[in-house]
Amino acid sequence: MDKGDKVLQIVFVGSPLLDIYTDSDKEVLEKYGSALNSARVAKWFAGDKAEVAFAGCVGCDDYEQWTKNQLVSEGVVPLFVKNSKEKTGVCACLMFDGMRSLCTRLGAAAKFSEEHLYLNNIRNKLKTATCIFVVGYFLGHSPEVVSILAEQCSPDQVFSLSLSSEYICSDHSEALLKVLPRVDVLFGNEAEVKAFAQALKRTTLPQLKKQLKSLVVFQEFQLFHPEFL
Protein backbone atom coordinates (compact mmCIF):
# COMPACT_ATOMS: atom_id res chain seq x y z
CA MET A 1 0.00 0.00 0.00
CA ASP A 2 1.30 3.44 -0.93
CA LYS A 3 1.91 5.86 1.90
CA GLY A 4 -0.54 8.30 0.33
CA ASP A 5 -3.41 5.81 0.34
CA LYS A 6 -6.09 6.42 2.94
CA VAL A 7 -6.68 3.55 5.35
CA LEU A 8 -10.32 2.67 5.94
CA GLN A 9 -11.38 2.32 9.57
CA ILE A 10 -14.29 -0.07 10.05
CA VAL A 11 -16.00 -0.82 13.37
CA PHE A 12 -18.39 -3.77 13.69
CA VAL A 13 -20.82 -3.88 16.63
CA GLY A 14 -22.47 -7.22 17.28
CA SER A 15 -22.77 -10.39 19.31
CA PRO A 16 -19.56 -12.38 19.86
CA LEU A 17 -20.74 -15.99 19.77
CA LEU A 18 -19.05 -19.38 19.67
CA ASP A 19 -20.69 -21.20 16.74
CA ILE A 20 -21.21 -24.95 17.14
CA TYR A 21 -21.85 -26.73 13.82
CA THR A 22 -23.25 -30.26 13.88
CA ASP A 23 -23.49 -32.27 10.65
CA SER A 24 -24.48 -35.92 10.96
CA ASP A 25 -22.17 -37.40 13.59
CA LYS A 26 -19.43 -34.81 13.08
CA GLU A 27 -19.24 -31.84 15.44
CA VAL A 28 -17.01 -28.93 14.64
CA LEU A 29 -16.41 -25.90 16.81
CA GLU A 30 -15.93 -22.62 15.03
CA LYS A 31 -15.94 -19.04 16.16
CA TYR A 32 -18.02 -16.54 16.18
CA GLY A 33 -21.29 -14.57 15.56
CA SER A 34 -22.40 -13.02 12.28
CA ALA A 35 -20.87 -9.57 12.87
CA LEU A 36 -17.65 -11.11 14.14
CA ASN A 37 -17.36 -13.25 11.04
CA SER A 38 -18.11 -10.16 8.93
CA ALA A 39 -15.28 -8.32 10.67
CA ARG A 40 -12.87 -11.17 10.00
CA VAL A 41 -13.86 -11.34 6.33
CA ALA A 42 -13.56 -7.56 5.99
CA LYS A 43 -10.01 -7.65 7.34
CA TRP A 44 -9.08 -10.62 5.19
CA PHE A 45 -10.49 -8.90 2.10
CA ALA A 46 -9.03 -5.43 2.74
CA GLY A 47 -5.72 -6.47 4.24
CA ASP A 48 -3.56 -3.52 5.25
CA LYS A 49 -5.90 -1.12 3.46
CA ALA A 50 -8.29 -1.19 6.42
CA GLU A 51 -8.19 -1.15 10.20
CA VAL A 52 -11.00 -3.36 11.47
CA ALA A 53 -12.34 -3.47 15.04
CA PHE A 54 -15.16 -5.39 16.68
CA ALA A 55 -17.16 -4.32 19.75
CA GLY A 56 -19.28 -6.69 21.80
CA CYS A 57 -19.89 -8.14 25.25
CA VAL A 58 -18.36 -11.41 26.43
CA GLY A 59 -18.07 -13.45 29.59
CA CYS A 60 -14.96 -14.08 31.67
CA ASP A 61 -14.25 -17.56 30.36
CA ASP A 62 -12.14 -19.60 27.97
CA TYR A 63 -14.40 -18.82 25.01
CA GLU A 64 -13.65 -15.12 25.40
CA GLN A 65 -9.92 -15.76 25.41
CA TRP A 66 -10.09 -18.05 22.38
CA THR A 67 -12.06 -15.47 20.44
CA LYS A 68 -9.76 -12.62 21.42
CA ASN A 69 -6.62 -14.54 20.48
CA GLN A 70 -8.04 -15.52 17.12
CA LEU A 71 -9.10 -11.97 16.27
CA VAL A 72 -5.69 -10.58 17.17
CA SER A 73 -3.99 -13.22 15.02
CA GLU A 74 -6.15 -12.14 12.07
CA GLY A 75 -5.50 -8.44 12.56
CA VAL A 76 -8.92 -7.50 13.98
CA VAL A 77 -8.92 -5.26 17.06
CA PRO A 78 -11.16 -6.76 19.80
CA LEU A 79 -13.11 -4.17 21.78
CA PHE A 80 -14.61 -6.57 24.29
CA VAL A 81 -16.68 -5.57 27.29
CA LYS A 82 -16.51 -8.28 29.96
CA ASN A 83 -19.51 -9.36 32.02
CA SER A 84 -18.64 -11.51 35.04
CA LYS A 85 -22.24 -12.65 35.57
CA GLU A 86 -22.83 -14.11 32.12
CA LYS A 87 -21.02 -16.61 29.94
CA THR A 88 -19.84 -15.87 26.43
CA GLY A 89 -22.71 -16.54 24.03
CA VAL A 90 -22.96 -19.64 21.86
CA CYS A 91 -24.96 -20.58 18.78
CA ALA A 92 -25.81 -24.17 17.80
CA CYS A 93 -26.19 -24.69 14.06
CA LEU A 94 -27.84 -27.98 13.09
CA MET A 95 -27.17 -28.98 9.46
CA PHE A 96 -29.51 -31.34 7.64
CA ASP A 97 -29.81 -31.97 3.92
CA GLY A 98 -28.11 -28.70 3.07
CA MET A 99 -30.38 -26.66 5.34
CA ARG A 100 -29.64 -25.20 8.77
CA SER A 101 -31.50 -24.53 12.00
CA LEU A 102 -30.07 -22.15 14.61
CA CYS A 103 -30.46 -22.16 18.39
CA THR A 104 -28.71 -19.32 20.21
CA ARG A 105 -27.90 -18.60 23.84
CA LEU A 106 -26.79 -14.98 23.78
CA GLY A 107 -25.47 -14.90 27.33
CA ALA A 108 -23.15 -11.92 27.77
CA ALA A 109 -23.70 -10.79 24.17
CA ALA A 110 -27.17 -9.49 25.09
CA LYS A 111 -25.68 -7.31 27.85
CA PHE A 112 -23.98 -4.85 25.50
CA SER A 113 -25.62 -1.52 26.34
CA GLU A 114 -25.57 2.14 25.36
CA GLU A 115 -23.17 2.88 28.25
CA HIS A 116 -20.56 0.68 26.61
CA LEU A 117 -20.52 2.95 23.56
CA TYR A 118 -18.98 5.65 25.75
CA LEU A 119 -16.06 3.57 27.03
CA ASN A 120 -12.87 5.27 25.88
CA ASN A 121 -11.55 2.49 23.66
CA ILE A 122 -14.90 1.99 21.92
CA ARG A 123 -15.81 5.67 21.70
CA ASN A 124 -12.46 6.60 20.16
CA LYS A 125 -12.77 3.91 17.50
CA LEU A 126 -16.32 4.97 16.66
CA LYS A 127 -15.31 8.63 16.31
CA THR A 128 -12.57 7.93 13.79
CA ALA A 129 -14.38 5.16 11.90
CA THR A 130 -14.93 5.45 8.17
CA CYS A 131 -17.73 2.89 8.37
CA ILE A 132 -19.81 1.56 11.28
CA PHE A 133 -21.71 -1.71 10.96
CA VAL A 134 -24.23 -3.04 13.49
CA VAL A 135 -26.31 -6.19 13.38
CA GLY A 136 -30.10 -5.97 13.32
CA TYR A 137 -30.25 -8.53 16.12
CA PHE A 138 -29.52 -5.65 18.50
CA LEU A 139 -32.99 -4.26 17.73
CA GLY A 140 -34.34 -7.26 19.63
CA HIS A 141 -32.35 -6.87 22.87
CA SER A 142 -30.47 -3.55 22.76
CA PRO A 143 -32.36 -1.19 20.41
CA GLU A 144 -30.93 1.88 22.13
CA VAL A 145 -27.45 0.90 20.93
CA VAL A 146 -28.59 0.99 17.31
CA SER A 147 -30.41 4.29 17.83
CA ILE A 148 -27.40 6.00 19.41
CA LEU A 149 -25.04 4.73 16.73
CA ALA A 150 -27.38 6.06 14.05
CA GLU A 151 -27.78 9.42 15.77
CA GLN A 152 -24.09 9.97 16.44
CA CYS A 153 -22.76 8.94 13.03
CA SER A 154 -21.43 12.01 11.25
CA PRO A 155 -22.43 12.75 7.63
CA ASP A 156 -18.95 11.65 6.57
CA GLN A 157 -19.34 8.20 8.12
CA VAL A 158 -21.04 5.27 6.41
CA PHE A 159 -23.64 3.66 8.68
CA SER A 160 -24.49 0.07 7.76
CA LEU A 161 -27.10 -2.24 9.24
CA SER A 162 -27.97 -5.88 8.63
CA LEU A 163 -31.55 -7.13 8.81
CA SER A 164 -30.16 -10.30 10.46
CA SER A 165 -33.36 -12.36 10.55
CA GLU A 166 -36.96 -12.45 9.33
CA TYR A 167 -38.29 -12.10 12.88
CA ILE A 168 -36.31 -8.88 13.35
CA CYS A 169 -37.94 -7.51 10.20
CA SER A 170 -41.47 -8.47 11.26
CA ASP A 171 -41.44 -8.18 15.07
CA HIS A 172 -39.19 -5.11 15.32
CA SER A 173 -40.13 -3.27 12.13
CA GLU A 174 -41.01 -0.05 13.99
CA ALA A 175 -37.58 0.15 15.64
CA LEU A 176 -35.99 -0.66 12.31
CA LEU A 177 -38.00 2.04 10.57
CA LYS A 178 -36.86 4.66 13.10
CA VAL A 179 -33.19 4.25 12.23
CA LEU A 180 -33.73 3.63 8.53
CA PRO A 181 -33.36 7.29 7.45
CA ARG A 182 -29.73 7.29 8.71
CA VAL A 183 -28.83 3.91 7.21
CA ASP A 184 -26.50 4.26 4.23
CA VAL A 185 -26.29 0.56 3.39
CA LEU A 186 -28.82 -2.08 4.47
CA PHE A 187 -27.81 -5.74 4.15
CA GLY A 188 -30.22 -8.65 4.00
CA ASN A 189 -31.13 -11.82 2.19
CA GLU A 190 -34.17 -12.04 -0.05
CA ALA A 191 -36.45 -13.53 2.63
CA GLU A 192 -35.51 -10.84 5.18
CA VAL A 193 -36.06 -7.98 2.75
CA LYS A 194 -39.46 -9.38 1.73
CA ALA A 195 -40.46 -9.79 5.40
CA PHE A 196 -39.51 -6.18 6.08
CA ALA A 197 -41.36 -4.98 2.99
CA GLN A 198 -44.48 -6.87 4.07
CA ALA A 199 -44.27 -5.44 7.58
CA LEU A 200 -44.18 -1.98 6.04
CA LYS A 201 -47.05 -2.86 3.67
CA ARG A 202 -44.70 -2.54 0.71
CA THR A 203 -44.78 -5.68 -1.38
CA THR A 204 -42.00 -4.91 -3.86
CA LEU A 205 -38.28 -4.31 -3.39
CA PRO A 206 -38.25 -1.15 -5.58
CA GLN A 207 -40.76 0.46 -3.19
CA LEU A 208 -38.51 -0.37 -0.23
CA LYS A 209 -35.49 0.96 -2.12
CA LYS A 210 -37.06 4.43 -2.11
CA GLN A 211 -36.39 4.54 1.66
CA LEU A 212 -32.70 3.71 1.31
CA LYS A 213 -29.48 5.00 -0.16
CA SER A 214 -28.29 1.47 -0.88
CA LEU A 215 -29.81 -1.97 -0.44
CA VAL A 216 -27.76 -5.14 -0.78
CA VAL A 217 -29.73 -8.37 -1.20
CA PHE A 218 -27.93 -11.69 -0.98
CA GLN A 219 -29.68 -14.35 -3.04
CA GLU A 220 -29.79 -17.88 -1.63
CA PHE A 221 -26.74 -19.93 -2.64
CA GLN A 222 -25.27 -16.86 -4.33
CA LEU A 223 -23.48 -15.26 -1.42
CA PHE A 224 -20.61 -14.08 -3.56
CA HIS A 225 -22.90 -12.53 -6.17
CA PRO A 226 -24.92 -9.93 -4.23
CA GLU A 227 -27.51 -7.80 -5.95
CA PHE A 228 -27.20 -4.06 -5.40
CA LEU A 229 -30.59 -2.36 -5.66
Automatic annotation (TrEMBL):
<dbReference type="InterPro" id="IPR001805">
    <property type="entry name" value="Adenokinase"/>
</dbReference>
<dbReference type="InterPro" id="IPR029056">
    <property type="entry name" value="Ribokinase-like"/>
</dbReference>
<keyword id="KW-0547">Nucleotide-binding</keyword>
<dbReference type="GO" id="GO:0044209">
    <property type="term" value="P:AMP salvage"/>
</dbReference>
<comment type="similarity">
    <text>Belongs to the carbohydrate kinase PfkB family.</text>
</comment>
<dbReference type="GO" id="GO:0006144">
    <property type="term" value="P:purine nucleobase metabolic process"/>
</dbReference>
<keyword id="KW-0460">Magnesium</keyword>
<dbReference type="GO" id="GO:0006166">
    <property type="term" value="P:purine ribonucleoside salvage"/>
</dbReference>
<keyword id="KW-0539">Nucleus</keyword>
<keyword id="KW-0418">Kinase</keyword>
<keyword id="KW-0660">Purine salvage</keyword>
<keyword id="KW-0067">ATP-binding</keyword>
<keyword id="KW-0808">Transferase</keyword>
<comment type="function">
    <text>ATP dependent phosphorylation of adenosine and other related nucleoside analogs to monophosphate derivatives.</text>
</comment>
<dbReference type="Pfam" id="PF00294">
    <property type="entry name" value="PfkB"/>
</dbReference>
<protein>
    <recommendedName>
        <fullName>Adenosine kinase</fullName>
        <ecNumber>2.7.1.20</ecNumber>
    </recommendedName>
</protein>
<dbReference type="InterPro" id="IPR011611">
    <property type="entry name" value="PfkB_dom"/>
</dbReference>
<dbReference type="GO" id="GO:0004001">
    <property type="term" value="F:adenosine kinase activity"/>
</dbReference>
<feature type="domain" description="Carbohydrate kinase PfkB">
    <location>
        <begin position="33"/>
        <end position="215"/>
    </location>
</feature>
<dbReference type="GO" id="GO:0005829">
    <property type="term" value="C:cytosol"/>
</dbReference>
<dbReference type="GO" id="GO:0005524">
    <property type="term" value="F:ATP binding"/>
</dbReference>
<dbReference type="GO" id="GO:0005634">
    <property type="term" value="C:nucleus"/>
</dbReference>
<comment type="subunit">
    <text>Monomer.</text>
</comment>
<comment type="pathway">
    <text>Purine metabolism; AMP biosynthesis via salvage pathway; AMP from adenosine: step 1/1.</text>
</comment>
